[in-house]
Amino acid sequence: MSALFRRKAFSTELPVHQQLARTLGWPHLLALGIGAIVGTGIFTLIGVGAGRAGPAVLVSFAVAGAICACAALAYAEMATMIPASGSAYTYSYTVLGEVIAWVVGWSLILEYSLVVATVAVGWSGYASGFLDGVGVHLPEMLRHGPTVVDGAVTAWGLNVPAVFIIFVVAGLLSAGTKESATINTALVVLKLVTLALFVAVALPHVDTANMHPFAPFGYGAANDGTGVKHGVMAASAIIFFAFYGFDAISTAAEEAKNPKRDLAIGIVGSMIACTIIYMGVAFVAVGAMTFSGFAKSPEPLAVILRSIGQDNVATVVAAAAAIALPTVLLAFLYGQSRIFLVMARDGFLPMKLAEVSKRGTPAKITWLTAIFVAVIAGLSPLDLIASLANAGTLCAFIAVAACVLVMRRRAPDMERSFRTPLAWFVCPAAILGCLYLFTSLQPITQISFFVWNGIGLLIYFLYARRKAVLA
Questions:
Q1: For the residues of 405-455, what is the DSSP string, one character each?
Q2: In this structure, are residues 457 and 103 in contact, taking their beta carbons and an 8 Å threshold?
């Protein structure tokens, strides 16, 4: 039994062939976090959230943002104490033990894979529409994966644009971390300018009458009888997807020039910036148009702009969103490849995959990750499983908050260049908040999460446990 909770000793000493190049400063990390956070969440999920909570989606954003802020503070402390790749997986292995680290790592694989695949499929829709506009028409079977109705495949297909953009981003990451981070920064600026344009154009059309009744579905998470939950907390559980991404910054610890300073700036700074952005955009959105008018749209901001007669601006916003969405792919594909890298170092994957290229990047694991995710994006119907990413993230956030509390007891005098303020309030708030959001998810999501981790534990006991370096 004790072997299940054996802990990995933290060390910054790695073989030369496994060392990553330190090329990232805090501006790169801040942009990486904002690039991961500001994406499909604000461009699309604001509509889904409004459909679940009405104008009270403003409160949903505030609740989800507050819980993520608590988790971000915990991440900042652990990232500066243990400046190594692997994020929550590494912290859990060092502090809580191997089997918990495996569950967290397995959950992160689910989170990152589904986020990348979902965003790639969303980008594919924009790309296919753009190609249609310039006279290039892809065959229908190359626009989307297999169509499944009542459990049976009714039409086969391969989402070629989704696979294409994943491999483009993987190529950028393999070329060099600093180069891909520079491109990411430019695209992040484009996203922020686009959101600022939306606010500037729609703000004069805000009518407080559109915000009444403010909470038509209540403040809890009530099931409507069809398996779908409505209410402020139900919307928070979905909108939570819009906030996470800052955890990808912690996977960059080994590539940060000054990790003990830069990681905290990147994690906390990106959360503060994105919370302000989200609240501003959400207020303008629900004020400029009745929420039911854009709740079911895949491009709610563009719909709102068209409703106020700003068709040209709507086109600009939609185009900019399509151009900038790859920043989300870059951040999460980057994070997932680093988690796979650390799991390979620990023996859970073949050790050869932990080698880095001459450019200081883990090229082998990056392309393996890209192929794995491309299969999901190209072939899987994601409508039912996309929200599983939220469950995986909640698991990781709980683990990191617990790590902070354990280390405060186990090693109170250990150097901490960033200390979580009011840790004995903030970390329990993160844990309880994440547990409550998990209960607010749809039943199919909760069940699927436990099935996924059941499969993961089976693999751990049959294979990974005896292959571990610590075994």
A1: HHHHHH-TTS--SS--TTHHHHHHHHHHHHHHHHHHS-HHHHHHHHHHHHH
A2: yes
- Asked if 84 and 90 count as a contact pair (C-beta separation under 8 A), the reply is yes
- Taking the C-alpha atoms of residue 326 and residue 332, their distance in angstroms, rounded to an integer, is 10
- For residue range 357-408, what is the model confidence (pLDDT) as tens digits? 777 677 788 888 888 888 887 876 555 555 566 788 888 899 999 999 999 9
Composition of the chain by helix, strand, coil, percent to 5: 70, 5, 25
Render the burial of 9-21: b for 16+ CB within 10 Å, e for the rest. eeeeeeeeebebb
Are 179 and 288 in contact by the 8 Å Cβ rule? The answer is no
Token readout for 393 is 């993230």
Q: The whole model's pTM is what?
A: 0.79
Torsion of CA 344, 346, 348, 351, to 10 degrees: 40
Exposed/middle/buried for 1, CB within 10 Å: 0-12, 13-18, 19+? Answer: exposed
Residue 308 and residue 327 in contact, taking contact as beta carbons nearer than 8 Å: no
